[in-house]
Specification:
Blueprint: E1 7-10, H1 16-27, E2 32-36, H2 40-52, E3 57-61, H3 67-81, E4 84-89, H4 104-132, E5 135-140, H5 144-147, H6 153-173, E6 178-185, H7 191-194, H8 198-207, H9 216-226, E7 238-241
Parallel strand pairs: 1-2, 1-4, 2-3, 4-5, 5-6, 6-7
Helix pairs in contact: 1-2, 1-9, 3-4, 4-6
The protein binds NADP nicotinamide-adenine-dinucleotide phosphate.
């Protein structure tokens, strides 16, 4: 199995799932551009690991909640490594709270990063992909976007939106050699889930049929599959990577 040609852009590549995706795509031969918003040191660490292993990588600070920053991310990635073949929309945040108490700001922030950011990044690289008649777009959604979750209405709405966006984009560009798919992780061990109370973590663990939390690499493997040349007949799909949690 081999990746389609071109630069891979991974938003939120400085930590967690995005970092594992960036390392995996680089290992499979793609020059990688890692987007991030705050953690310059961590993003540069990922770049250093990829370069030490003979790969090509660059870190680009770009807050995906701003369209002009998404345009900058794509432009700089292309200047550095050449045309984009792969876009992985992974950047995401949580601002949990029960609906009655959910602040407007928490709603807006989560929608802006987790949903608007996906739209902006897709728009910024789609024209080039269409011209080249080649591309792989993978959006990192969540099983919460499929099933909802008490205390995460903002996050669930954003991730459900990502799934609708994935399927609509897939239909629009299917004839242009571009696939658009989503992965829907369950409970993956990252900074995001480490922030949850131990009791909540234990409750999740008890419900996961496979009997363990997922690793960022579990998600990266699924993303890499969607980015392969061989996956060209698979589009508009949502693949749960959740140890069976949501089946
Ligand atoms: P994480 O460890 O908290 O890392 C988040 C990443 O996103 C960081 O690289 C961060 O950059 C970046 N980021 C945050 N806001 C951004 C913005 N506005 N613009 C650009 N980059 C931004 O999260 P994770 O657990 O790896 O999650 C990655 C994705 O998987 C998210 O979309 C999340 O919703 C989804 N997901 C995670 C789980 C899970 O169990 N962990 C489950 C389902 C879905 P900085 O380092 O600069 O802050």
């Amino acid at each position: 199995m081999g990746l389609i040609p071109g630069t891979a852009v991974v938003t939120g590549g400085s930590r967690g799932i995005g970092k594992a995706i960036a390392l995996k795509l680089a290992q499979l031969g793609a020059p990688v551009a890692i987007g991030y918003t705050k953690n310059t040191a961590k993003a540069e660490d990922v770049v250093a690991v990829i370069r030490e292993n003979g790969g090509k990588a660059v870190a680009i600070q770009a807050d995906v909640s701003h369209p002009e920053e998404c345009e900058k991310l794509i432009k700089q990635a292309e200047e550095f490594h050449g045309p984009i073949g792969i876009l992985v929309n992974n950047a995401g945040i949580t601002r949990d709270g029960l609906l009655l108490r959910l602040k407007n700001e928490a709603w807006q922030d989560v929608l802006a990063t987790n949903l608007d950011g996906v739209f902006y990044c897709i728009q910024a690289c789609l024209r080039g992909m269409i011209k080249r008649r080649s591309g792989r777009i993978v959006n990192v959604a969540s099983i919460v976007g499929l099933h909802g979750n008490a205390g995460q209405a903002n996050y669930a709405a954003a991730k459900a939106g990502v799934i609708g966006l994935t399927k609509s984009a897939a239909q629009e560009v299917a004839k242009r050699g571009i696939t658009v798919n989503a992965v829907a992780p369950g409970f993956i061990a990252t900074d995001m889930t480490a922030a949850l109370a131990e009791k909540i973590q234990d409750e999740y663990l008890a419900k996961i049929p496979v009997g363990r939390f997922g690793s960022p690499e579990d998600v990266a493997t699924a993303v890499a599959f969607f980015c392969s040349a061989e996956a060209g007949y698979i589009t508009g799909q949502v693949l749960a990577v959740d140890g069976g949690l949501a089946m």
